[in-house]
Amino acid sequence: MPQSVAILIFDPHGRALVLRRGPTDPWKPGHWNFPGGMAEPHENPEQAAVREVKEETGIPLKRKHLNYISTVVRQSGGHEKTPVKGTHIFWVRLRSRPKVRMRDGEHDAARWVSLGRLPLPVIPGLHFLIQQITGKPYWFGENTNYGDSADYQKALDILRSPEEAKAIQEAAKAGWESGYSTEEGGTRSYPVPLQLDQMSSNYQQLLTTGVDRKIEEHGGLSLPSRKGDMLRGKTLYWIPAPSSNYSAQNRTKEDVNFIVIHTVEGASGFSLLDPGRGASAHYLVQTDGDIVQTVDEKDKAWHAGNGTINAQSIGLEHAGFSYVQGEGSEGGMWGDTMLRASAKMVASIAKRWDVPINKKHIVGHVNVGGQTHTDPGPYWPWNRYLRMVWWYRYRWPFLASTTVFTGLSIAGLRWHRKHKS
């Protein structure tokens, strides 16, 4: 497997060194990047990192100074026939800012910059790499993260407004409560009772505890906590969906603009793991708060019934039924345990992919035009849910800023009293 390295070199003030590829460079001339390059066949990643930094910048590093971050493994274009490449990422903090001497002929300029204010243009995927490393959104000055503006606008044109979605759900609710007429003169009823307490005890048990057995049957692998995940006490499992149910891609932050909320109209959503289903979702959120990931976030799951939205979104299916009333928020069957787990995961996704937390970018399946699904139904507590997502996404910066402000206010009050007297 071809291997490459990338090295983030920080000065004492936390600014990173970036190099600009020269005008005659065969790949991305004029683009900025971190020092790094391909490893020689006889080198390990640390040796390659030390050599590349020396060749490109003249800065002498020692292997013991390198701090390993992660390895990104990818296929060009996401196609199974293209070679797999691995990029090993390191960082190092210097005690002083050295003079940069570009000796390799590939680069013509160097700068020490904040990670949040890189010079433009940068090589493809560099800003996404920064977000994955730091866990913080990356902004290109006044630009947005919406990639191809034409595709983003096309997606916005497809989505229904909250008012349209609500009208559709209310009509569906009335239809299920009265019973839909069939061509044969009969009545089509909802697949389960419309009241949670009227469901059989076996089915209620299946909703709450039956998922453990299904996870075991499918060989669910318990995943360690990833950077940015906020489940805390709940388990994230990995059960891969069949390759026939999704599109393998290598999406970056520029590609993902939306998060779509679904309900499975069932007890768990594990039917999406059937090879012939032709549908999938990135996550299956269970009633007990455990979550099963079935498709990698960088791949395109088939969940929204629209190719444009699928290409720009991450989908979460929730166990349960859209039109069943219960004791949860807004009169539905959605309990706090599930809602909190879902909100924490959506907050994590929004942080990783820089998706705004609002009803324009976190939508229900019903909001997707050109298809007939109406989930998550009229009982989904959108206002409360988005407040929860916002809180889990921003609570630590919010609490930190509040603490600092409170401390400054108290100090200012004490100073005023002291000097007034």
What does the model show?
The chain is α/β, with parallel strands linked by helices and 421 residues long. The protein folds into two domains: 3-134, Nucleoside Triphosphate Pyrophosphohydrolase, CATH 3.90.79.10; 149-400, Lysozyme-like, CATH 3.40.80. It is 30% helix and 19% strand. It has nine helices and 18 strands. It has helices spanning 45-57, 126-134, 149-158, 162-178, 201-208, 210-217, 307-311, 336-353, 382-420, and strands spanning 3-10, 16-21, 32-33, 36-38, 67-75, 84-93, 107-113, 180-181, 187-188, 221-222, 236-238, 246-247, 258-263, 283-285, 291-293, 300-301, 313-318, 362-364. The chain has a seven-stranded mixed β-sheet with strand order 10-11-15-14-17-13-18. It has a four-stranded mixed β-sheet with strand order 4-1-6-5, covered by helices on one side. The protein has a three-stranded antiparallel β-sheet with strand order 3-2-7, with no helix packed on it. A hairpin with a 5-residue loop joins strand 14 and strand 15. Helix 8 packs across helix 9 (382-420). The N and C termini lie far apart (74 Å).
What are its keywords?
alpha/beta; 421 residues; Lysozyme-like; seven-stranded mixed sheet; Nucleoside Triphosphate Pyrophosphohydrolase; 18 strands; 9 helices
- String of helices and strands: EEEEHEEEHHHEEHHEEEEEEEHEHEH
Please indicate the count of domains. 2
Secondary-structure-based class equals alpha/beta
CATH superfamily of the largest domain: Peptidoglycan recognition protein-like
Query: Would you give the CATH topology of the largest domain?
Result: Lysozyme-like
Q: Give the CA-CA distance, first to last residue.
A: 74 Å
Mean pLDDT: 83
CATH class of the largest domain: Alpha Beta
Largest sheet: 7 strands, mixed
Radius of gyration: 25 Å
CATH architecture name of the largest domain? 3-Layer(aba) Sandwich
The share of residues in helices is 25-40%
Report the total helices: 9
Uncertain parts: 75-83, 135-147, 397-406
Adjacency order of strands in the biggest sheet: 10-11-15-14-17-13-18
- Overall, the morphology is elongated
Tell me the β content: 15-25%
Total E-strand runs: 18
